[in-house]
Each structure stands twice: as C-alpha cells, then as structure tokens.
Amino acid sequence: MADILCAAFNRIQTTGWTMAKVYIPVGSVSGTATAVAEACADALRAAGHEAQTDSAASIEALNSGAWDAVLIVTSTTGRGDLPSNLAPFYTALGEQRPAQNGRPFGVISLGDSSYDATFCNGGALMEDRFYELEGQAPVPRVTIDATETQTPDVDAIFWLNEWMEKAF
Ligand SMILES: Cc1cc2nc3c(=O)[nH]c(=O)nc-3n(C[C@H](O)[C@H](O)[C@H](O)COP(=O)(O)O)c2cc1C
Fold this sequence. Notes:
The protein has 6 helices and 5 strands, in the order αβαβαβαβαβα. By secondary structure, it is an alpha/beta fold. It has a single domain, classed as 3-Layer(aba) Sandwich (Rossmann fold), CATH 3.40.50. Strands 2-1-3-4-5 form a 5-stranded parallel beta sheet, sandwiched between helices. Flavin mononucleotide binds next to α2 and β4.
C-alpha cells in the first residue's frame, strides 16, 4: 500500500498534476444546465479532481469547502435573468462580497440567441460578479446556444478541457 501511495505521489511530483476541488453552482429552470453541470462534474472526476454540483448555491457552501476553483453553470430566463435557484447566490455575493483573491473560476452560460440582446445574460452577470470579487478566469465564459446545438454537454466539456488545463 505504501509503495502504491509513494508511486502516486512521485507521479504527482514529476508530472505537476494536482487534484483540485471544484464547486459548481448551478442555475437551471428546466434541467438543461443541471444536466450539463453533472456532465462537467463527471468529466472533472474522470480527470482525477473532486467536484460538487449545487442547485441551491450559497456563500456558506462557497466558503466552507476549501475549493480550489468555482465553475458556474447557468441558463438564462425571463428577460436576461438568472434562474430563481441561482439568483439568491448572485444577490448574496453582491451583498457579502466574499473576496476570491485570484481563485480560478469559469462560467458555462446556456441560452437562446433568439432572445437577442439578453442572450446568455445570466452567465454574463455571474462572470461580472466573480471578476468584481477578484476571481481570475483562465478562459473566458463560454456561451451555448440552444438554437445551434443539440449536445450542450459535449460543447461544455470541449470548453472545460481547456479550462481545466489552465486553471490547475
Ligand atoms: C421563459 C424563458 C425565457 C428565456 N429567456 C432567455 C433570455 O433572456 N436569454 C437567453 O439567452 N435565453 C433565454 N431562454 C432560453 C434558455 O436559457 C435556454 O433554453 C436554456 O437552454 C434553458 O436551460 P435550463 O433548462 O437549464 O433552464 C429563455 C427560456 C425561457 C423558457
């Protein structure tokens, strides 16, 4: 057992690979963003990281997990609004302003370009908020357009691979 652990540790040291803990706040009305978030969590785990999705994201959970990175996955509803299960988190971030001190974050933003001026605005709101709190985005927010793709999970994971490479 000790040999196996030692070999694993050596591998980490020689390759520079480190396990990261990723918090995934999710905003979704009808489940698409939730499915995308779960697919991303699975991809992160398959790459050797820890990932936790949260459909009722809170400052308490954000602050309590010793997270190495935050990955927001959200759709947009109403007229450019965040889904009601993520909006309270956005508001609390604005009120309590937890400093991110350069912690890596990423935003996967789902929407529909027929909404034109408010296309993927929910993700834009979250991205702005994390920049205000001095998070650091290794890769800009990705937008996933329901009019253009039938496979939002595949599109998200394509973007996630680059994000993972640069974030950790
Ligand atoms: C009532 C309603 C309002 C929407 N408003 C917007 C919008 O303002 N901007 C946008 O990009 N997409 C908008 N959408 C599209 C959704 O964001 C898109 O279909 C998304 O994939 C839904 O994901 P979800 O199932 O996780 O909520 C709207 C959809 C509905 C049903």
